[in-house]
Amino acid sequence: MVRVGVRIKWKYLTKDGIQACAKVHTSSSVVPLGSPVTATCVIKEDCPLVTGQAFHIEWRLDDRLILSSSETNESSRVSKAVISSFNETRAILTCCIQTSPPQVVAGVEIRAGYPPEVPQNLSCQTNLTTPLTITCRWDPGQRETHLPTQYFIHTEIWDANKKRSYELPKGVHHYTIPRPEFVLYSDMKIYVKAVNELGETTSAPLILEPITKFDPPKIFQVMSERHRCLRLRWNLSPHQLWVGSNNMNLEIRLKSVFARNAKPSRPVDICGLLHWTQYFAQIRVRYQQSPWSEWSSSQSGVTLESAPTGSLDSWMKISGDHMPKQLNISLFWKPSKQFRANGQNVLYIVSVRKLPGEKGQVCSTRENYCTFQLSGRVKKVYVRAVNAAGISPPTEVWIYKPKAHPAVLDVTAVPYGNSSFLVQWESMVSLGLTDHVVEWRPLLKTDLSLIRFEIAQQNLSSIVITGSFEPYKPYGISVYPRFTDGIGLPKTVNAYLRQKGKSPKTQRGSHKQLTWDQIPLDQRNGIIQNYTVFYWDQKGPINKERSVILKDLNVYDAFLMVRTLGGSLNGSIIHFEFEPFDAVAVVMIVIASGLGLSLLIIFIVLTCFSEQKRLKGFFWPAVPDPVNSSILRWASESTQVQKEPNPIYLSHLSFLDLPMKLSKEEDDLWIKSAEETSDLGDDSVPYATVMFSGLCNSPPPKEPHVYLRSESTQPLLETEEPFTPKCYQNLVNDGMTGKQCFFGPSHDCAPKEETDPSGLWEDFPFLRALTMNDTQND
Amino acid sequence: SVCRTVVALLLYFLLAALVQSAPVSSPSNPSQAFREAAGRAKTLVEKILKDIPAVHTTVITTEGLTLDPSSQTTNLQMMVMELGIPAAPVLKPLSESFTLDMCVSHMLVGGRLYQELLVVLSNKLGGLQDLSADLRDLLTHINKMKEAAQLSGDSSDQNSLDLASRLHGTYEIQVAAHLTLTQLRSFCHDLIRSLRAIAAYRPVAAGTR
Asked: Which terminus of chain B faces fewer neighbouring Cβ atoms within 10 Å, N or C?
């Protein structure tokens, strides 16, 4: 017995040589990951470690101790370890005998992993450029096997009785089959096998014939040799021209798709096309069921011309005076849905004859309208379209006289989309109504060529008209009812496709009025809804009014806004400054006042020099001047004395110096020079002196009036009855009250009635004379 | 027991005869398979014809050896004999004396000849692999034609060429390659003619043998 290698394995020398002490058996050293592993350790009988002593077997996985079920007895020496789930990719399982130190007697490496996934998405493609090869690829799967896995690609060609398989290097999942290993045009089966220690999987087989996707072919020419047919001359890409003419599928794309079997280098005819139409052709090829090549580049060709076919929609209007002999007819037409021009440069011929010919031709034009004159007897005309290839069948147009029959009640036209209008109308149910014609034209240009029309069938009451409508321009849309015997009266409405505001031009008018010009039709861009004035002063808020009278005498800024259905636009801001008096106003005032003044002057002058004493007296009452009025003149002249003493004259008056001052105003009228009165001499005794201090309307003096008698022998009456009239007033003796106060109205001028006037006269004869004088004056 | 033997033998032969005369149903439409194979063969012949000039240009570098038929053939007759390159069998038009069987057999013989030549030359020269593969595929399809039409082709005794031993030097190799390509080209022209004729030929005999 030899003890060899404490750590490794116990071996012992027998006559048969060195032998291991124990052996570990497992079902498999490679297991699926996570699966249970069972290992059995069998210790040989004659292992020296165990002879003659009790021992204990323990198991270790890498360095960890694991549970084991030992069935140790003297005879069997077998231990079994079970790992319920082996979760590592590789580990060493060792069987040890528990001695001190523990001795490893046997071990085994366990590896775990997964069997390979089925290779997926196997695809092979023939490389058609020299050298011819087939490249195959596949997807090995996502799962890591943790075990070395080999991939093999297998090919089988039945025709050649060939079977091959090629091993691929690690991690390579594609293979290029060289030319000698496949037979052109012979089916071959290709599949991939993946093999590792846990199993092998095979991909789904691929059967292919090694001619697959082609390069796009080429169209050389597209021409038309037969009516409604196009001929394509084409061929394959130069690399693949050898492929040969059989079994090629060609797909042609015009506007629809055709699939044809075709041979390369042979032209392909496509028929069933329209006349005189340009088509763009593209082709692609494939060999039997191989993938299609890409589309070739596009080539165009035009089919041949042919005579026009189909009818025309027509719209006939009679304009001008409806004289029975000659009618002015405007005829408009356009292709109907079935119409085909089938050629270029279509000429339209209007004729009164049904058969084509020079005679009876009324109109020959390339336009879509014609105006001509016809006699009233002609019932219908015929319109034909002509091109280089032929002439179309005629379209009948009946000549209808206009009927004064209004059948359309109301028309509305609303913008609909980007360049259309939805036209709706109401029409009365009338006998013989065949259809309606909706005609439209731009209002700014009045060329006949711009008139368009659309026919609406009998029971329709709305259609959408599409045309080259420009926004912000007005169009007149009319709806005409058509009857079996005539055309009724239209109803017209103006419409705009889009409206926007237009800046108005504002003017400053007279002092408070803002006016603006009406915007001309071609600039209106819409139907004007309203005008709005925005105005504001220096600091005030912005106001807006429909119509404004600016009253306050302030500075203002304002602008005008015009609104249509499509929007509004503001004018420029203008600045107002209000003068208190405008120039015009000033002039007016001056003139008025001048006139007034002159009138007044004239009136005054007239009144002054007027003979009408009454009138004069009204304005200038004859107030006797007390200074120059006298009852009796007491002048030094004796002549005057010899006169009959006129009791009407007042005695001489003299003004004494007054204790109070008289105002100047009083002196103006009544004060005569005091010097005149003082030449009577100093020996005269003043008889009466009338003193007064002011006008009636001045406040009464504080001191009482003083009356002094003038030269008179009569005794002075000291105690006079203080009859102190405030005013110098005429005392009336006949009881006439209400006599005016000469000095003007005064509150005291109401005559007093408490004293008996007749008694006074007895005492004062002079006063009585005054009274009489006054009466005479009247 | 003699009677039984006779009856057995009779039955056996009858059965054999029955079996023999019964139409074989392996291609459901033998003429279609035949036509397909013929079509593919024709395509391959066209490919070979298209590729020969390019291969010749690549492989033959010796001055004076061109594919242009005007000058060469008479000069190199001696070389042909020296190299031991046999002539291909002649493909005559189909007729009573030259049946479909014979035609197809001749095609195969000729094809195999050139294939062998190309294999030998491929060992000495590069650039011949693709052509060789095409020719091999062509033979595959001609074989299919034969199978489809159930033609009895006698695999004719083909003298194995001893070309390899006669290719002493570069010049011999070049001449051999040139001659092979030239003759192959004319053989392919014949093949096309025959295949077109076969395409029009309705193999009435097939399946009724």
From this structure: N
* B50/A241 Cβ within 8 A: yes
Closest CA to B118 of B48, B62, B193: B48
Environment class of A644 (CB within 10 Å of its CB; exposed 0-12, middle 13-18, buried 19+)? exposed
**Could you tell me the pLDDT band of residue A469, with boundaries at 50, 70 and 90?**
confident
ipTM attached to this prediction: 0.76
The total number of structural domains in chain B stands at 1
Report in angstroms the alpha-carbon separations of B5 from B1, B11, B12: 6, 10, 10
* A569/A563 Cα distance (integer angstroms): 7
CB atoms within 10 A of CB A716: 12
The per-residue pLDDT for A17 is 67
Which domain range does residue B150 map to? Answer: 27-200
Q: What is the pLDDT of residues B54-69, one digit of tens each?
A: 999 999 888 778 877 6
Torsion of CA B150, B153, B155, B159, to 10 degrees: -150
Taken in order of first residue, the domains within chain A and their CATH numbers are 22-113 (2.60.40.10), 120-208 (2.60.40.10), 218-303 (2.60.40.10), 322-397 (2.60.40), 408-496 (2.60.40.10), 506-575 (2.60.40.10)
Within 8 A of A241 by CB-CB distance, chain B residues are 50
Give the CB-side neighbour count of residue A67, counting CA atoms within 13 A.
Answer: 5
Per-residue DSSP letter, A296: P
B143 touching A (Cβ < 8 Å)? yes
Measured between CB atoms, does B199 come within 8 Å of chain A?
no
**pLDDT top residue among A756 and A271:** A271
Task: Give residue A555's pLDDT band: very low, low, confident or very high (50, 70, 90).
Answer: low
Contact A146, B100 (CB under 8 A): no
DSSP assigned state of A689? B
In a domain, B13, yes or no: no
**Shortest CA gap A240–chain B (Å):** 9
Examine the pLDDT at A470 and tell me if it is beyond 50. Answer: yes
- Asked which of A75-89, A137-151, A455-469, A608-622 is least confident by mean pLDDT, the reply is A608-622
Residues of B in contact with A246 (CB under 8 A): 39-40, 42-43
What angle, rounded to 10 degrees, do the helices at B30-59 and B170-200 form?
Answer: 150
Q: What is the pLDDT of residue A575?
A: 65
Helix, strand, or coil here: A81?
strand
Compute the average pLDDT of residues A135-144.
Answer: 89
CATH number at residue B153: 1.20.1250.10
Asked if residue B113 is part of any domain, the answer here is yes
Give the amino acid at B152: S
Residues 6+ apart with CB under 8 A from A103: A6, A10, A49, A96, A97
Q: For residue B189, is it within any domain?
A: yes
Residue A510 has a pLDDT of 44
- Measured from the Cβ of residue A128, the count of other Cβ atoms closer than 10 Å reads 20
Neighbours of A490 (CB within 10 A): 20
Q: Please indicate if any CB of chain A lies within 8 Å of the CB of B51.
A: yes
CA angle A386, A389, A395 (to 5 degrees): 30
**pLDDT given for residue A717 in this prediction:** 55
Query: What is this structure's pTM?
Result: 0.48
B135, part of any domain: yes
- A763 versus A379: the higher-pLDDT residue is A379
> Residue type at A199?
G
Q: Kindly state the DSSP code that residue A54 receives in the 8-state scheme.
A: -
